[in-house]
Design brief:
Blueprint (H helix, E strand, L loop, with lengths): L5 E7 L5 H12 L4 E7 L10 H9 L25 E4 L2 H4 L11 E4 L12 H24 L7 H10 L4
Parallel strand pairs: 1-2, 1-3, 3-4
Protein name: Arsenate reductase ArsC
Keywords: Arsenical resistance
InterPro entries: Ptyr_pPase, Ptyr_pPase_sf
């Protein structure tokens, strides 16, 4: 039985929307069983989390304190926090050559459309972020429902990849 939280790194290109939503949701819902992080393959200079992502999280009662956009390099070098599972949440990041992750974590890809690309009114944009947050929440809840013994290193990748179909 695991005594420390399962550490999950969510990746996207800019680390401003989908990966931020996933990090906040898993930390909120994971109740100490999980510790989530997020990063981007190529965040822009001075990149910040998308304000609409922060608004929908706050509207759902999920803390946003400490969320920040960062490069995946923070998780690939010496002294980086070890992770057990790396999940890409955008198709661009999934197709990129990832760095070497210390400890050879399990990997999976959960595809979501980019809500920041939605055109329209402020309310239409917010609704796109809400839909994305709810889609991510569904998979996160399914991950949380996986019995702890099936989250062992040998089965973790299979379990996380199976959730991509939900």
């Amino acid at each position: 039985m695991r005594t420390e939280p399962l550490r999950v790194l969510f990746l996207c290109t800019h680390n401003s929307a989908r990966s931020i939503l996933a990090e906040a949701l898993l930390n909120h819902l994971g109740a100490g069983r999980f510790r989530a992080f997020s990063a981007g393959s190529s965040p822009r200079a001075h990149q910040q989390p998308n304000p609409l992502a922060l608004r929908v999280l706050q509207g759902a009662g999920i803390a946003t304190t400490g969320l920040r956009s960062k490069s995946w390099d923070e998780f690939a070098g010496p002294g980086a926090p070890a992770v057990d599972l790396v999940i890409t949440v955008c198709d661009n990041a999934a197709g990129e050559q990832c760095p070497f992750w210390p400890g050879a974590p399990a990997t999976a890809h959960w595809s979501y459309p980019d809500p920041s690309e939605v055109q329209g009114s402020e309310e239409q944009k917010l609704e796109a972020f809400r839909r994305t947050m709810h889609a991510i929440r569904t998979r996160v809840q399914l991950l949380l429902a996986v019995p702890p013994e099936r989250l062992a290193r040998e089965t973790l990748q299979r379990e996380a990849r199976a959730l991509a179909g939900h």
